[in-house]
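Incident log, support desk, overnight shift.

02:14 A customer reports that sequence design results differ from what the structure should imply. Their input is reproduced verbatim below. On-call engineer (initials T.W.) acknowledged and began investigating.
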């Protein structure tokens, strides 16, 4: 008789992450802003890029008055969904975002100075589980017993956070600038 193993899942373990994020009004409740992690992706070759989803383009790159820097102090509830991946290169959407944020020309060079590592995470739905609050009151039930939602188009609110900081370089007004991107995990 052949036996099959079963995956046993325990209770969902939440961690908090403070990492590059943005504010998206299109998904917020009652028109309020919703903090979301910048939807970083990484491919099998280690190319870090951005998946333009959830109004990220509208909320960031195409905003009138310029593209804002990544938001700070977000403290988002997440669960870790994978292992570390070394960043070996930068994708076109990532470079487009950095150029818009730093107000650089379209051909301006952006290079990795110190490669980082990223880990896949899934963000919880803010109306059920959020930052340091011990309870949330909602008008509708959670979509599942692990408090995650989303759709295939937004990859179920998955993104990559920096498990090791990454430093990139840009050329601004004839000088090299060093930009370090990082995430800080609590309860990881």
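02:41 Re-run completed on a clean worker. Output:
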């Amino acid at each position: 008789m052949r036996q099959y193993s079963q995956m046993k899942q325990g209770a969902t373990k939440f961690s908090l992450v403070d990492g590059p994020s943005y504010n998206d009004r299109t998904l917020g409740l009652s028109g309020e802003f919703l903090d979301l992690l910048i939807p970083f992706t990484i491919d099998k070759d280690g190319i870090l890029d951005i998946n333009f989803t959830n109004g990220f383009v509208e909320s960031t790159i195409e905003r009138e008055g310029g593209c804002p820097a990544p938001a700070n102090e977000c403290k988002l509830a997440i669960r870790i969904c994978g292992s570390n991946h070394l960043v070996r290169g930068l994708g076109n959407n990532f470079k487009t975002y950095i150029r818009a944020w730093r107000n650089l020309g379209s051909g301006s060079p952006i290079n990795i100075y110190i490669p980082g590592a990223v880990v896949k995470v899934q963000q919880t739905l803010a109306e059920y589980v959020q930052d340091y609050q011990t309870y949330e009151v909602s008008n509708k039930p959670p979509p599942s017993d692990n408090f995650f939602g989303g759709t295939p188009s937004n990859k179920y609110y998955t993104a990559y956070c920096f498990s090791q900081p990454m430093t990139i370089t840009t050329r601004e007004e004839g000088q090299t600038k060093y930009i370090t991107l990082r995430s800080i995990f609590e309860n990881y």
